[in-house]
Amino acid sequence: MRGIENLHPELQEIAKKFLLECEKANLPVLITETLRTKSEQNALYAKGRTTSGNIVTNCRYPFSPHCWGVAFDFCRNSKGREYNDSDGFFRKVGAIGKKYGLFWGGDFRSFTDKPHLEMIKFLPNNSTKTLASKYGMPDNFIANWKEEAEMITKTKIKLNGVVKTVDVINKDGNNFIKLQDLRDEKINIGYDNASKLPIIEIK
After folding, report:
1. Contact criterion met (CB below 8 Å) for 14 and 100
2. Distance CA 181, CA 159 (A)
3. Cα distances (angstroms) measured from residue 131 to each of 36, 140, 179, 192
4. Could you tell me how far CA 57 lies from the centroid of its own chain?
5. 0.90 surpassed by pTM
6. What CA–CA distance (Å, rounded) separates 152 from 1?
7. How many CB atoms lie within 10 A of CB 18?
8. Extents of the domains making up the chain
């Protein structure tokens, strides 16, 4: 699958920001793969083993982060030059991915995978073992984060006479909005380094 809408909701938001920053840096990026089904992953694993072609992965289903929706692959969005790395394209793009807390496949020790980025948060030691131990199979993990995503709704708030729509997180019967969504010319959201707590200043 290619669409970022198939990724974990947190990675979807990261991917959007990542693509915008790549565009600003004049690095034309195309996301080529996101979530992989069991048949897709096993077909890739078979390449160079039981089917023709070169080996492209060492992971059977469900042991690729793609199977869990927490990784994506990319290439240069330039026909005929998709994997041209003569100018260090993949390293530059990987560096942008790292800024957003992703692990770049170019840093893998045993199987370098430059067109790959994945979420460190869910993959300690670049392994799906923690996910597999907690959820068993990818379908259970995906159902869990889709359920969590449904807990986010919208509401309107009025700040300094201006009405705007913001996200609301519904949890345990309570509604929460992000502090940054309260920011306007009369409310400043800061951070106290000493106490490591946010500060709300009403002018």
Report:
1. yes
2. 10
3. 16, 10, 30, 35
4. 20
5. no
6. 25
7. 23
8. 4-147, 152-202
pLDDT in tens, 8-58: 999 999 999 999 999 999 999 999 999 999 999 999 999 999 999 999 899
CATH of region 4-147: 3.30.1380.10
Residue keyed to tokens 């959820």 = 135
Report how far Cα 109 is from the mean position of its chain's Cα atoms.
22
**Closest Cα to residue 176, out of 162, 193, 155, 145?**
155
Q: Which residue has the tokens 């394209």?
A: 89
CA distance 28 to 96: 13
Contacts of 61 (CB under 8 A, 6+ apart): 36, 38, 41, 42, 45, 67
**Better-predicted residue by pLDDT, 134 or 162:** 134
pLDDT in tens, 90-104: 999 999 999 999 999
* CA 50 – CA 105 distance, rounded (Å): 25
